[in-house]
Every structure is written in structure tokens, then in C-alpha cells.
Write a structure and sequence with these properties.
The complex is a heterodimer. Chain A is an alpha/beta fold. Chain A contains 7 helices and 6 strands; from the N terminus they run αβββααβαααβαβ. Chain A has one domain. Helices cover 38% and strands 15% of the residues of chain A. A 6-stranded mixed β-sheet of chain A has the order 1-6-5-2-3-4. In chain A, β2 and β3 form a beta hairpin. The longest helix of chain A is centred in the first third of the chain and has 17 residues. Chain B has a 5-stranded mixed β-sheet with strand order 4-3-2-5-6, with helices on one face. The longest helix of chain B has 20 residues. The relative contact order of chain B is 0.14. Classes of the chains: A alpha/beta, B alpha/beta. Chains A and B meet through α1, β1, β5, α7 and β6 of A and α1, β1 and α3 of B. β6 of chain A pairs antiparallel with β1 of chain B.
């Protein structure tokens, strides 16, 4: 009697299709991923249970950190360019085409108007060196000395002109920042009748 | 080298001289492993990296007519004074004649939350109208941090308090905080 033969199944699987699919997905995720831009002033945001994500466009961010320094972030190149034009008129500081181009790709900044040219002349990597940018000057008036007020205002005007939409504003404060620094920004927003804004938080993971 | 290994089948004369087959298969396992690792990485970083935005609505400043104010009953208002050292001092009614409190509590589920939940249930029964619920007034002092503000606003979302507002702290209230020793740097 012949021995019953155990049929051997092949141990190798054809991986070609799987490889194709996985690389397709990989390409998709790489292309959709947004590159994280280095920030000139990294802050540690407080945590909350909010699940709403920040929008991608028509959006500006006021970062408060490092003992009350204000940094301003405008999303969207066209809005940034227009906001700079408005500010340049307001403060009578002309900018060259080169500087305007440079400003359009600079997402976050924190310098007084007078020092903006210096920062624009710098290399993008040097700009984000910590402690280099002193923050945007702000006070409680509506005068030219309150530069943060006018930056926010210009960005809002630019958004209205270009997108015909109300700009959404957010405050990104360091968790250990004292309340008066945050209050300063809230007051500036309220003086422009922006009563709705949002606070940027991280996701709370611990049991609160 | 570059052409595909096709068995032509034509020259099967002797059956002995076979053209040497170049390796038609490459082991793709490692490549697939790597690809999936990268996919996982990109998937996680794209969604997790985005920060959250907590919406805040402030009351209108109404600079034209500061006298135009809405009067609310004392028994509906609960004031939370955010002091230093991550402490809250709360009271019901006015600071001069508090209906309840003032009491110092912590943040989180063992601190302010049970009190808030308690009051949220109690106040509509006192007023006798389910529409007239608790109004929470948050007054951060200068010694409180941004984290405290976010924590208390978060607490409002957790306990689903409908009416709350961020107000400005007054001088007598700072004195209350000073007296209770939660107004330090």
C-alpha cells in the first residue's frame, strides 16, 4: 500500500499586489500630510476634552508665551500678502517685492513693525531661533502703538476682501502663562467686536 | 538580463540544455513591512498632530451704554474665583452676602465637578422653572494661569452647563482671595 502523500502547500505568497496597494496608500498619506513648520516660540498648550479640530483656512492664531510675548500666525499666503500691504500703508513702511515674497511664506512672526525687515532678510532657519523675536507690541489702545491690534485687524480685512468670509481667530496660550497676558489678547479681540474665538488646546488623556 | 523569463517552448529538443532562469521573484515581504510601517506613521501623525480648538463666546462689551445690564437673581448665580496654586473659590449670590460659601476647592472630578453638578440640579428646583437654570460666572484673577482658565471652561463642557461667562474680577473679590491665601505668585 502506498503511503498517503501529504500535499505540500507553497509557503511563499505573492506579495506584488499587496506591495502595490501599500505603496499607493503610502504615497497618498505622504502627499496629504502637512509639513510641520518650525515655530519661533513653541508653547505647551493646556489640555481639554474638546474634539473640534482647528480649521485649515481663513484662520489666524495669536500665540502667547514666554512671559507675555505675542506672536501672530496667519494661514494662507494670499491673505498674508494682503495683510502686509495694509500694514505697510498704515505704518508707512514700504516693502520691496522681495520682502513681500519672503513674508508670504513666513507663517509665524513676532517682531515690531520696525524690525520686520531685519527678520525678512534672515534665513528661514535662523528666524525660528528661540528668543530672537521679541514679540509683537500690544497695549490697550486702538492707536498705532498697539501693533497686535492692527495686525489682527489687517488680517481680518484681508480675509474679508479676498475670501468674503469672517476670519476665525484663536488664542494659543502656554499653559503656565498668567491670565493677564491672555486677557490682553481677549481685550484686543473684543475691542474689534470679535466676541467669538477659540482657545487652542491639546487632547486630554488623563482622567480629569 | 532584462527580458522576461518566458518559456518559449520551441526548443524542447533534448530537454537537457535548459536556459538558466533568472530569478523572476523578489522577496517583497521586507518591502511590504516597511511600506506598512510608513503608512501607519503617516496615518497617525496626520490626524493626531492637529490641535483642538475650544470655542469661547464672550459677552458683548457694550461700551455705548454700560448701564444697560441684565439683572439676574442671586440664587441663580454661582461665581468661581480662580486663584493661585490651582485653587478655586466659589460662592453663590454676591460676595458680600453669599448664600453659600465661599469655599476653596480644587479643579477636576474630585473638586469643583460634584458641586457644579449639584447646583445644576438644585437651581431649577429653587426657581421653579426648568428654563431658569444655573448661571456660572468665571472670574480669573491675575494670579491664575491659562491652564486654569482652560480647565474650568472644559469643566463647563463636561458638566454641560448652559450658561456661563468669563467676567472681570473686582477689588473686594481679590481681597477674599488674599484673605484665604490663594493669591500668591
Amino acid at each position: 500500500m502506498p503511503r498517503a502523500k501529504v500535499k505540500r502547500t507553497s509557503t511563499t505568497i505573492d506579495m506584488t499586489a499587496m506591495c502595490d496597494v501599500s505603496f499607493l496608500l503610502l504615497t497618498f498619506f505622504i502627499l496629504t500630510a502637512t509639513a510641520v513648520q518650525p515655530e519661533p516660540m513653541p508653547v505647551d498648550t493646556p489640555a481639554s476634552v474638546t474634539q473640534v479640530k482647528v480649521p485649515d483656512e481663513n484662520f489666524a492664531l495669536i500665540t502667547v508665551g514666554d512671559g507675555g510675548k505675542y506672536f501672530f500666525t496667519i494661514k494662507g499666503r494670499d491673505i498674508r500678502s494682503r495683510a502686509l500691504e495694509l500694514m505697510s500703508e498704515k505704518y508707512s513702511i514700504p516693502f520691496t517685492a522681495e520682502e513681500k515674497k519672503e513674508f508670504a511664506i513666513m507663517e509665524t512672526f513676532g517682531v515690531p513693525m520696525g524690525n520686520l525687515k531685519e527678520i525678512l532678510a534672515m534665513d528661514a532657519n535662523d528666524r525660528v531661533r528661540q528668543g530672537l523675536q521679541p514679540g509683537i507690541p500690544a497695549d490697550t489702545t486702538k492707536e498705532v502703538s498697539n501693533q497686535l491690534f492692527h495686525w489682527i485687524y489687517s488680517a481680518r480685512v484681508a480675509t474679508k476682501e479676498l475670501k468674503d468670509e469672517e476670519m476665525r481667530l484663536s488664542i494659543k496660550g502656554d499653559a503656565d502663562e498668567k491670565y493677564p497676558a491672555i486677557k490682553g489678547v481677549i481685550d484686543i479681540l473684543q475691542s474689534q467686536e470679535v466676541n467669538k474665538f477659540s482657545l487652542i488646546t491639546g487632547l486630554r488623556s488623563e482622567d480629569f | 538580463m532584462a527580458e522576461l523569463n518566458q518559456d518559449s517552448g520551441g526548443d524542447k529538443k533534448g530537454g537537457k540544455i535548459r536556459s538558466k532562469k533568472a530569478g523572476g521573484r523578489v522577496d517583497l515581504t521586507a518591502m511590504v513591512d516597511l511600506a506598512f510601517l510608513l503608512i501607519t506613521f503617516f496615518m497617525l501623525t496626520t490626524s493626531l498632530n492637529k490641535p483642538n480648538a475650544m470655542d469661547v463666546a464672550m459677552p458683548d462689551k457694550n461700551e455705548d451704554d454700560p448701564e444697560d445690564r441684565l439683572e439676574v437673581a442671586d440664587n441663580r448665580t454661582m461665581t468661581l474665583l480662580l486663584g493661585s496654586n490651582n485653587k478655586i473659590e466659589w460662592y453663590m449670590g454676591t460676595y458680600s452676602e453669599p448664600i453659600e460659601g465661599p469655599e476653596i476647592v480644587d479643579y477636576g472630578k474630585d473638586g469643583i465637578r460634584p458641586i457644579l453638578l449639584d447646583k445644576l440640579e438644585e437651581v431649577p428646583q429653587i426657581t421653579g422653572d426648568p428654563e431658569k437654570g444655573l448661571i456660572v460666572v468665571i472670574r480669573p484673577s491675575e494670579k491664575s494661569t491659562h491652564r486654569n482658565l482652560v480647565d474650568i471652561l472644559d469643566e463647563m463642557n463636561i458638566v454641560e452647563a448652559k450658561q456661563y461667562t468669563i467676567g472681570t474680577i473686582s477689588e473686594p473679590e481679590i481681597e477674599v482671595l488674599e484673605r484665604d491665601g490663594i493669591y500668591n505668585d
